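Letters spell out the chain; backbone shape is given numerically. Both lines appear below:
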Amino acid sequence: PRVQFDPNSYLIGHAVQAIELAKKKDLPARLDHPKGGIIFYPDGREALIEMTERQLYILSSVPIQQKEISIKTLKSPPAAGSGTQSMAQNALIWQLTLWSARCRLPQTVQPTDLVVLRHWPNMTRLQGFPHAIRIAALLVQGPRSLLNTAEVLGIPQRLVFAFYSAASMIGLALNSSRAAD
């Protein structure tokens, strides 16, 4: 089975593009799909979601064609409507990544690569899953491979891959080229 995926082929990749556009232009950015939209703010704190959680899950778990998505900036922040929900941006990106990755790694990362956590994740705001705290505790200590992390903790590799994928998409985890990093 393939242990890697291309985030840019999924909703998560488009969401990251919208976030980058919002920050670059210092304006809210809207990601639109026929099923609904997501608005990201340049301060990075929250996102407005204009679709149900089920619609979001379905869109996140299958590849999306570029022509199905549009991303544009908004001149002013929209008012939250009755069909919208607000969510912390990092929590949304974390969730979209878990749904898209399905326990796989981004295609730029190999299971044997050394990785490290920049700092401890706010697990009270992020969706937890089995062993997430243990994985974070080990990876925050210093660089180690994802395969070694699973081996040391005695847990399935897929859980380590899922954690790394989500943590890397929110800028929390990164590849470390040297053990001394």
Summary: The CA atoms of residues 12 and 96 lie 6 Å apart. The chain is about 35% helix and 20% strand. The two ends are 31 Å apart (CA to CA). The chain has a mean pLDDT of 90.
